[in-house]
Amino acid sequence: MAGTVIVTRRLPAPVEERMRQLFDVRLNTADVPMTQAELVNAMRTARVLVPTITDRIDAAVLAQAGPDLGLVANFGNGVDHIDLNAAAARRIAVTNTPGVLTEDTADMTMAMILALRRRIPEGVKVMEEGRFHGWSPTWMMGHRVSGRRIGIVGLGRIGAAVARRARAFGMSVHYHAPRPAAASVVEPLEATYWASLDQMLANMDIVSIHCPQTPATYHLLSARRLALMRPEAVLVNIARGDIVDEAALIERLAAGLLGGAALDVYTRVPAVDSRLQALAREGKALLLPHMGSATVEGRIDMGEKVIINIRTFLDGHRPPDLVLAHHAGVHRKLT
Ligand code: 8YV
């Protein structure tokens, strides 16, 4: 099939192989992000660009796109690294990979909650370092997870998958979203809707973030809102770093005003704030290196979604996973 497809990062081998069979494709064999100059160069020549979260496709980059570029087929769900308005203005379509990473991300959310509350990383370290000197009644006591109230911020696909798991673990499910979810979603979960995020935060044991990052959700968990959380409550963020005011979160954790945080995403990557590492060493934070959707199966499924989007586009049809700026809640340009 004709058309130059440029892929910015190494993808799982079966995905790269399939792309080679199907498209006139230029793969990036170096497993490091492209420089901005390389990215701009790719934008000039490609018909289809396949970026990942490590590529910043802002208005300045899009302004340099060649006349042939018609599709940015993102390898991933979140598109906060792409200026959707600028793409739309240049009639460049943007697609993502919804659905296929839902269950893996929800599994990881539960793993993070359990690991933080039951002190799993500390326990693993004790064994690795040969510091287990025998059981005692007060040894490694964590906190019970069942019977707790979980407040889910954003009851989309991933939020609902987390809610199903939380129910199975005996938690009561609460959620905040711009509007109540459909009865078919909410009823089986017996989920309680909180129109006010402030009020939900003040009443939860666990708060888990599952909304996209948009200008509207930037620092949604602001210093003021973090201060509403109960001092023994924990925060889980597997969505995007800037949905939380990370500096304010660090202050509250360090001051013992929050029960803990489990994070898979950060404001700065890869140079994560070193104060978070110190908090992790004290057992107040559990930190993961953005691996929420990282399963072999999930990444291959994501690649398959990207391929379907590219094929339909190159065939002259509307790709199935189009992301529209107004649907994604993007009302102003990336800053
Ligand atoms: C992806 C993610 O691995 O899909 C997302 O939004 O956050 C990750 O799980 C990443 O975006 C790949 O580009």
UniProtKB/TrEMBL annotation:
Provide one Gene Ontology cellular component: cytosol
Q: Is Secreted among the key words of this record? A: no
Which is one GO molecular function term here? Answer: hydroxypyruvate reductase [NAD(P)H] activity
What keywords are annotated for this sequence in UniProt? NAD, Oxidoreductase
D-isomer specific 2-hydroxyacid dehydrogenase catalytic domain residues: 6-323
Where's the D-isomer specific 2-hydroxyacid dehydrogenase NAD-binding domain? 110-292
Does the record's keyword annotation contain Oxidoreductase? yes
Xref: InterPro entries: D-isomer_2-hydroxyacid_DH, D-isomer_2_OHA_DH_cat_dom, D-isomer_DH_NAD-bd, NAD(P)-bd_dom_sf
Identify the domain of life.
Bacteria
List the PANTHER family.
2-HYDROXYACID DEHYDROGENASE-RELATED, GLYOXYLATE_HYDROXYPYRUVATE REDUCTASE B
Family per record: Belongs to the D-isomer specific 2-hydroxyacid dehydrogenase family.
Protein name as annotated: D-glycerate dehydrogenase
